[in-house]
TrEMBL record:
Gene3D superfamilies, A to Z: 3.40.190.80, Fructose-1,6-Bisphosphatase, subunit A, domain 1 (3.30.540.10)
Keyword field: Hydrolase, Magnesium, Metal-binding
InterPro entries: IMPase, Inositol_monophosphatase-like
Residues the record lists as binding Mg(2+) 1: 73, 96
Enzyme nomenclature, EC number: 3.1.3.25
Sequence positions that bind Mg(2+) 2: 93
Any one Pfam family match given in the protein's UniProt record, by short name: Inositol_P
Organism classification: Eukaryota, Fungi, Fungi incertae sedis, Mucoromycota, Glomeromycotina
GO biological process entries: inositol biosynthetic process; signal transduction
The name this protein goes by in its record: Inositol-1-monophosphatase
Top EC group: hydrolase
Length: 261
């Protein structure tokens, strides 16, 4: 099957699940959408909507691609074992930004990626609240809402890189599970160093620090998409899982938007 067909299935599925998320958001002030803690962590939440969306995605992908493997956030949280191999593997975060969803903060996304031979092949990220659909296919660039080609996308060369951090707008995610004093101290220090005036950063050159600003939207896939879109310069994350980080080392699976340059 051609990668265009993979992308078509993933896109329709992401949009379908986006509607489920929108409808479920209307019950946030009622008891209609229960919220649970993962592993007893108050900062790591899962809702009935996460589970419902992942079950739908998994069943549809298995129906369309019975020979493909599947890795999902809530499937993993439920204790299921998986192995990342060269086989075609779908990696899914059904509701990226669950805490945002619970609070009604509109940075929430369905994130679906396909790897073949451990290489990113297809990626879809859909934010139903802002109607932002990011799609990418290896060798064919990346698009916003099917029509707008992202600036960090083949065949367009990337914009001139900033000469220093002081020209950058940075998105930052610190992870919410480990909030021990030692860990949080290191995370806060890293943010402080990014904001320091030039010349006052002890671990780097005079050009480091004094960034334009730091944004924290707590949705890893959207952060990466916004770098591809060009409205963010850097995404800096501490503490990621497989559905955020995979074969392209330290970034989200949706880094294919950059990987496809």
């Amino acid at each position: 099957m051609d990668s265009a067909e993979y992308l078509e299935v993933a896109t329709k599925l992401a949009q379908q699940c986006g509607q489920i998320i929108l409808e479920a958001s209307k019950t946030r002030y009622t008891t209609g959408n229960k919220v649970y803690e993962k592993f007893g962590q108050q900062t790591d939440l899962v809702t009935e909507t996460d589970i419902k969306v992942e079950e739908l995605i998994k069943s549809e992908l298995q129906k369309n691609f019975p020979d493909h493997m599947y890795i999902g956030e809530e499937t993993k949280a439920a204790g299921n074992h998986y192995e990342f191999t060269d086989k075609p593997t779908w990696i899914v975060d059904p509701v990226d930004g669950t805490s945002n969803f619970v609070q009604g903060f509109p940075f929430v996304a369905v994130s679906i990626g396909l790897y073949i031979n451990k290489e990113p092949t297809v990626g879809v990220v859909f934010n139903p609240f802002l109607n932002e659909l990011f799609t990418a296919r290896k060798g064919h660039g990346a698009f916003l809402n099917h029509k707008t080609r992202l600036p960090l996308s083949h065949p367009y060369p990337p914009p001139a890189l900033p000469s220093s951090l002081s020209q950058c707008l940075v998105s930052y995610e610190c992870g919410g599970i480990d909030r021990s004093d030692l860990t949080m101290s290191k995370k806060v220090t890293s943010v402080h160093n990014l904001l320091r005036l030039p010349g006052e950063v002890s671990w780097s050159s005079k050009k480091a620090g004094s960034v334009h600003g730091i944004r924290n939207i707590c949705c890893a896939s959207l952060n990466i998409c916004y770098v591809a879109k060009g409205c963010l310069d850097i995404h800096f994350s501490i503490g990621c899982w497989e559905w955020f980080v995979n074969s392209f080392h330290y970034y989200s699976i949706q880094l294919q938007f950059l990987y496809f340059l």
